[in-house]
Design a protein that fits this description.
By secondary structure, the protein is mainly beta. It contains six helices and 32 strands. Its cofactor is Cu cation.
């Protein structure tokens, strides 16, 4: 009896404990389920119809290429972890592709978009569906055409918010009261495709733009533009998040908002330590997120942007675009900010070198590939019997390590790589990891024997998982200037920048290995250098190029071919069935 009684009490105790444990587990599972529901990634489907639309700018009517008839194009808004399916239907008159600028495209290189690099173009009357996931990135990116100069009008914002329930790392973790996408651009009073085609035919520099724009509008300082000036209503005391995107083709920009301090909190969809400033410098391709508290006397205030032009003697668009931040007051004339001079390199440098990553960098302890790339312009000799529009009857060119990049025309590089031997002859894997000739890169008078690059379609092969460091060295061939270098498929740490020639013995110790900013586009200073580092963990073919479209047109580009790793998760996905044919 005692034994039986003891056994009964023990069973009862075990049963009660089991029940309590079961209830606890069920509660935990329910809690996890709710969390999963809160943070579950979504899939969005969009259709982008590339088509002509009529607009009026600077007193003239134009027919421009757009997406869905909008200029700028539609903003895509996602949460981190979401997947996008975007069907691009080409109802225009030009070949087109779309690049999702800054998206890592992990294993989905077929959706990256650069024409003849990862795909053949979408021809008029055809379509292609881009499929990718936006993972591990929060902030502001953008999308744009990556064919010829179509991105002048075919572009839009890509806004990536934290997943539901995940706090922002600024503003006390709270979402900003209001978010304002601000796309800075350039406007030509003629068809930009005609501009670049004329320049390509003659070898001359293309015409500069006729206006700068904010969200597609030039603003008060241009003819026939005042009534359409972009205006942002704001409320006293509110803190808003301004999402700046430099969508201009060829112009780096100083930006300032009269009477207000801007606090930078992110760049290229990576968070930064808060940095308060009165002026931004944003290169084409770059994005910058800033918080602004509207704490000034109620009035109207101009946001203004003008060129930062670092190349001496080179023509540029020396106009100023404006938008208005309006506290809801009367029609008093807006206050105008003071912008730096167009050649104020000291201010540009002060801005870029003040950015720091929010957290300690996850840098590899080793460097497997130490590369040194010279970047700059040059000149091709004119063909016999031909008249060319460059200096002294030459054609303008540009190069990396003296190789002027030539796009294929029969097959994309990624298709050729995936196809193996059957696609031989499209590219070669012998891009030089160092300049073929070492010289004083920033000398006042570089030998004319070094001005002419060699055309080629060359890639640099990287082993999956390799830690890569690249010194990007500007040159003073023909004209030195700041080059915004963009790498597809990757973010990278900017470890440092400086003037003159990079000296490993002198400059390596100055590199920031603690909290460097992470970006996808780095400005290589005029007559200077920048050092970037990344891990090659994304298989595919990834273009690196100057984001001044005039320079990529001239050949300032190369591509990394990152090999597959081990297993499916370290390998490029198979090409989709609707991949366009050349």
């Amino acid at each position: 009896m005692l034994l039986a009684s003891g056994m009964s009490r023990s069973s009862s105790t075990v049963s009660s404990s089991s029940l309590l444990l079961l209830i606890t587990l069920l509660a935990a599972l329910l809690h996890c389920s709710l969390l999963i529901q809160l943070t579950v990634a979504k899939e969005q489907y969009h259709e982008f119809v590339v088509q002509e639309a009529a607009v009026t700018r600077l007193c003239r009517k134009h027919s421009i290429m757009t997406v869905n008839g909008q200029f700028p194009g539609p903003a895509l808004e996602v949460s981190e972890g979401d997947s996008l399916i975007v069907r691009v239907i080409n109802r225009g008159i030009y070949n087109v592709t779309v690049h999702w600028h800054g998206v890592r495209q992990m294993r989905t290189g077929w959706s990256d978009g650069p024409e003849y690099v990862t795909q053949c173009p979408i021809r008029p009357g055809q379509s292609y569906t881009y499929r990718f996931t936006v993972a591990g990135q929060e902030g502001t990116l953008w999308w744009h055409a990556h064919s010829s100069w179509l991105r002048a009008t075919v572009h839009g914002a890509l806004i990536i918010r934290p997943r539901s329930g995940v706090p922002y790392p600024f503003n006390g973790g709270k979402p900003p009261v209001r978010e304002i996408p601000i796309l800075l651009g350039e406007w030509w009073d003629m068809n930009p495709i005609d501009v670049v085609r004329t320049a390509t035919r003659t070898g001359a520099a293309p015409n500069i733009s006729d206006a700068l724009t904010v969200n597609g509008q030039p603003g008060d300082l241009y003819k026939c533009s005042s009534k359409d000036t972009t205006t942002f209503p704001v409320k006293s005391g509110e803190t808003n998040l301004l999402r700046f995107i430099n969508a201009a083709l060829n112009t780096e920009l100083f930006v300032s908002l009269a009477g207000h301090t801007m606090t930078v909190v992110g760049a290229d969809a990576s968070y930064t330590k808060p940095y308060a400033t009165s002026v931004l410098m944003i290169a084409p391709g770059q994005t910058t997120d800033v918080l602004v508290t509207f704490d000034q006397p109620p009035a109207r205030y101009y946001l203004a942007a003008r060129a930062y032009s670092s190349a001496q003697g080179v023509p540029f668009d020396n106009t100023t675009t404006t938008a208005i931040f309006d506290y809801g007051t009367s029609s008093s004339r807006p206050a105008m900010p003071t912008l730096p001079a167009y050649n104020d390199t000291a201010t540009a440098t002060a801005f870029t070198t003040s950015l720091r990553g929010l957290r300690k960098a996850e840098l590899p302890s080793r460097v497997d590939e130490s590369l040194f790339f010279t970047v700059g312009v040059g000149l091709f000799n004119c063909s016999t019997g031909q008249n060319c529009g460059g200096p002294n009857n030459t054609r303008f060119a540009a190069s990396i390590n003296n190789v002027s990049f030539v796009l294929p025309s029969t097959l994309s590089i990624l298709q050729a790589q995936y196809g193996g031997a059957a696609a031989a002859g499209v590219f070669t894997a012998d891009f030089p990891g160092n300049p073929p000739v070492q010289f004083d890169y920033t000398a006042q008078n570089v030998s004319r024997a070094l001005w002419q690059p060699v055309p080629g379609t060359k890639v640099y092969r990287l082993r999956y998982g390799a830690a890569v460091q690249v010194v990007l060295q500007g040159t003073n061939i023909f004209a030195a200037e700041n080059h915004p270098i963009h790498l597809h498929g990757y973010d990278f740490y900017i470890l440092g920048e400086g003037s003159g020639n990079f000296d490993a013995g002198r400059d390596t110790g100055k590199l920031n290995l603690e909290d460097p900013p992470m970006r996808n586009t780095v400005g290589v200073p005029v007559n200077g250098w920048a050092v970037i580092r990344f891990v090659a963990d994304n298989p595919g073919v990834w273009l690196m190029h100057c984001h001044l479209d005039v320079h990529i047109t001239w050949g300032l580009a190369m591509a990394f071919l990152v090999e597959d790793g081990v297993g499916e998760l370290q390998s490029l996905e198979a090409p989709p069935p609707d991949l366009p044919l050349c």
